[in-house]
Amino acid sequence: MSEGTASLPWSVIRRDDNGNRYRVGRYATEAEAQKIADSFGNLGPKQLYTVERLGQNGDGGRG
Question: Dihedral through CA 21, CA 31, CA 27, CA 10, nearest 10?
Answer without folding.
Answer: -50
